[in-house]
Amino acid sequence: MAELDLCIRNARIVDGTGGPSFFGDVGVAGDRIAAVGRVEGGFASREIDAHGLVLAPGFIDIHTHYDPQICWDRLATPSIEHGVTTAVMGNCSLTLAPVKPGQSAKLVAMFSRIEDIKAPTFAAGVPFTWESFGEYLAHIRAGLGLNIGALVGHSALRWYVMGADSQERVATDAEIAQMCRLLEEAMAAGAIGLSTSYVDIDENMKPVPSRFADMREKIALCQAMAKSGRGVLQTVPYFIDVEEQLKNIAELGELSRASGVLCSLAPIVSSPLGGDAWRRSLAALEVEREKGGRVYAQSMPRTFDLNIRLSETSFLLFGLPTWNRFMGLALPERVTAFGDRANRAQLVSEGMLIAPLLMAASVGEVFSAANRPFAGRSLLQIAGELGVSLPEVMLDLALADGLRTEFCIRGAIHANIESVAEILSHPLVHIGASDAGAHIAQFCGAGDTCYLIERFVREHKKMSLERAVERLTGELARDWGIADRGVIAEGKFADLVLFDPETIARGPEVFVGDVPGDANRYLRRAKGIEAVIVNGEITLERGSYTAARAGRII
Ligand SMILES: [Zn+2]
């Protein structure tokens, strides 16, 4: 046998195929798995005794927004800590390339607005030294800690070709041809597919460029990317209205049949407000499947919990015009505006629109002595005791803390364990939609991988460990065209995660100030992850990053 660089012995191997786990060793030579089963002693330069631990293929997260963060943080923290060895970014029609010299402001404005990454963070952390998508990939490639699959954002592509017209009209034949040529070039440079959006609005409340595309443009783009032999179309549906969402699913079926590419709709969530929308959506996916389309949805194991701090950003407040306007001010002016009694009546009446969510809110972190007695308590209870409305109590508490008070909305959306388990078990649903790297001052999406095992395998026994691992690895690699990854087998890339099935957990959210441009984010530190191996290199061991940076553009 060839010399091994690494041998993990006595593991319970869950190989990502969905088949029963088995006990054995896995040998690694270079960046590949060289042996599985019983590996004779004395060959490897590094040995790990994995007694009591599970060895699985590295997890794949198909829905992240690390496009800006990867510029200053090649580890895409904290995803690797949650066992992720491959992250797909560029979702929801938004990427930072292609971009014409001097025209990055539009991409930054859209990204800031839709994904809640602040403009000062872009200014401090994203250099925009590239124009083409390939040049962007070349920029981020050096020193990657994990594998990156990069979708091309349809809104970025359309803006590049059509400028401001991209938010006014359908494209001409010549413009479509140019978009197709750029997409083909991006695929040749290593892109994994295209992302689009049927719902998002930009910084001026205008639909994003991708929403002005007609079917000839969408079919042409799907066929163009399919020429590369792979390609996925990810899309955000018009989830505000289920009838529209069902039409979106039918359209994705048509696109898939016309081009052969897989279409991925994100997210599907169960919510008391949405009623049976999720069930009807799953049924619509089945209809497209019967007609020969490859249309999948993404859903996440995480209850859609959010934190609001009026000192940060919050997409919950987009629909409240006065709140939204004040949230756009610099902090000192924001404090004045929210505190001005002349604005109070308007703020309160608008705030009642989100009262159903505020009913599920509790007070988290507080800063002033006056607020200390309220920490940990339900906002509804406090409002009742004080005899004021929910928006009023929120404003008063926030003002006492210079707007920094944390309000934690828990258990309101995607919370019903039975419904979520049914969604997560559906064969046309992929585990995704983590949104890691986005909305970072509201929640931490990284951690969904551990949470699937923690909550749905260990706590609620809704899924076997083998099936959960398959959902996070082999199935995604196969369906998304990620070659030679996602399973533990000889000859495959050695992307591996070693964890304790009894303790693996996503960990609590913590709020930290480590984002460029003097910004903050929520993080989760996983529990029970012993080691993460990327392309044969131990990248994380017992919670600490090594010097290895073996990630690739895949
Ligand atoms: Zn997204």
Structure description:
The chain has 19 helices and 22 strands. By secondary structure, it is α/β, with parallel strands linked by helices. The strands form four sheets. Strands 1, 2, 3, 4, 5, 17, 20, 21 and 22 form a nine-stranded mixed sheet that branches. Strand 6 (59-61), helix 1 (69-72) and strand 7 form a beta-alpha-beta unit. The longest helix has 18 residues, at 242-259. The two termini are 29 Å apart. The structure holds zinc ion.
Which helices and strands appear, and what pairs or packs with what?
Blueprint (H helix, E strand, L loop, with lengths): L5 E8 L8 E8 L2 E6 L9 E3 L4 E4 L1 E3 L7 H4 L11 E6 L14 H12 L3 H7 L7 H9 L5 E7 H9 L10 H16 L2 E7 L17 H12 L5 E5 L5 H18 L2 E4 L11 H14 L4 E5 L6 E3 L12 H7 L3 H9 L4 H8 L3 H4 L2 E3 L15 H8 L3 H11 L6 E3 L7 H9 L3 E3 L16 H12 L5 H8 L1 H6 L16 E4 L9 E7 L3 E6 L4 E6 L2 E5 L2 E2 L9
Parallel strand pairs: 1-4, 1-5, 6-7, 7-8, 8-9, 9-10, 10-11, 11-12, 12-16
Antiparallel strand pairs: 1-2, 2-3, 5-17, 13-15, 14-15, 17-20, 18-19, 20-21, 21-22
The site of zinc ion (ZN) has 6 residues, from loops.
The distinct bound ligands, ions and cofactors come out as: zinc ion
In the predicted model, the low-confidence regions spanning at least 5 consecutive residues are none
What's the main sheet like?
9 strands, mixed
Count of alpha/pi helices: 19
What would you report as the Rg, rounded to the nearest angstrom? 23 Å
**Amount of beta strand:** 15-25%
Total beta strand runs: 22
- Residue share in helices? 25-40%
Report the average pLDDT across residues.
96
Structural class: alpha/beta
Shape: globular
Termini, distance in Å?
Answer: 29 Å
